[in-house]
């Protein structure tokens, strides 16, 4: 394998599933860049981790670890919703995609999203959807998404 | 109880959870008005019904039955997504809301959506979200929703 720049990037940034030890590698700090997380104890983290892991392939959290800093620098989630529509079909939902401010420009966001889309496809989903801000539309178009609808929300 | 028109409407249209027998009451025909459903055998319906029911309060399908025609005339789904964000918070997702063309004007859509929102609130979700077409934005605003983001999709 040659050691050109793209391969160094590939080697430095390692895409894998979330592990329990990632809390100590900055996973929560990374999520804070997306939205408020607040304080989560190790016990709370572990409980939620196992709840989500119990769904197996139907709820997958990807992370990118920087092998130099040993920090988690990107993440994204995909989960499967089972429906009656489309012959008892399945829809993939992508959530909580974020790249660390220090790691932007290395195409890690695309790497994460591509892997989540591929996961949904391999599980037999008939579609994969996500909600994003107007500013991020261009990024998701580069990942193969098309604008489809409007997201509406109530915050309690 | 008086027998004025609004109470008659209340009595005629009965909101409840989906039951296995609703396949024979037009539940699939109703979903066809929203999107392609295709052919689903009784066995496939039963299997998917039980898969979803096994999630208990975290995946609820509401239906409205017309007590006169004994048909299902409205439906909507809410499911809970568990996150690390917001202190290991929960987000409610509303999906697959549809009212039968023959039953429009009786505010059944609002009745369904209000019940799904209330369910998400009672389960402790910090937000409830849904995706809709531009044409349906006004309806969801009347249900208390605000426009928040753009939905992007890939259809496989």
Task: Name the features.
homodimer; Glucosamine 6-phosphate N-acetyltransferase (chains A, B); alpha+beta; GNAT_dom (chains A, B); glucosamine 6-phosphate N-acetyltransferase activity (chains A, B); 6 strands; Acyl_CoA_acyltransferase (chains A, B); five-stranded mixed sheet; 6 helices; disordered N terminus; GNPNAT1-like (chains A, B); 156 residues
In short:
Helices cover 33% and strands 33% of the residues of chain A. With 156 residues, chain A is an alpha+beta fold.
Describe the global form of chain A. globular
> Separation of termini of chain A?
53 Å
Rg on CA atoms of chain A, Å: 16 Å
H/E element string of chain A? Answer: HEHHEEHEHEHE
Category by helix and strand content of chain A: alpha+beta
* Largest Cβ-defined interface: A-B, 57 and 58 residues
Tell me the fraction of residues in β-strands of chain A, as a range: 25-35%
Multimeric state? homodimer
Q: In percent, how helical is the residue content of chain A? A: 25-40%
Major sheet size, sense and barrel closure of chain A: 5 strands, mixed
Organism (chains A, B): Stephania yunnanensis
Protein name (chains A, B): Glucosamine 6-phosphate N-acetyltransferase
Main location (chains A, B): endoplasmic reticulum
Family (chains A, B): Belongs to the acetyltransferase family. GNA1 subfamily.
């Amino acid at each position: 394998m040659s050691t050109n720049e793209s391969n160094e990037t590939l080697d430095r940034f390692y895409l894998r599933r979330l592990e329990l030890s990632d809390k100590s590698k900055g996973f929560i700090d990374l999520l804070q860049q997306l939205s408020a997380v607040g304080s989560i104890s190790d016990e709370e983290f572990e409980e939620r981790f196992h709840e989500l892991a119990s769904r197996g392939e139907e709820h997958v959290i990807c992370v990118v670890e920087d092998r130099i800093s040993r920090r988690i620098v990107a993440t994204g989630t995909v989960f499967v919703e089972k429906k009656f529509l489309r012959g008892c079909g399945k829809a993939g939902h992508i959530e909580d995609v974020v790249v660390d401010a220090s790691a932007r420009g290395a195409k890690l966001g695309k790497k994460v999203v591509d892997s989540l889309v591929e996961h949904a496809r391999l599980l037999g989903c008939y579609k994969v959807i996500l909600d994003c801000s107007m500013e991020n539309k261009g990024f998701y178009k580069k990942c193969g998404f098309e604008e489809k609808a409007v997201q509406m929300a109530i915050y309690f």
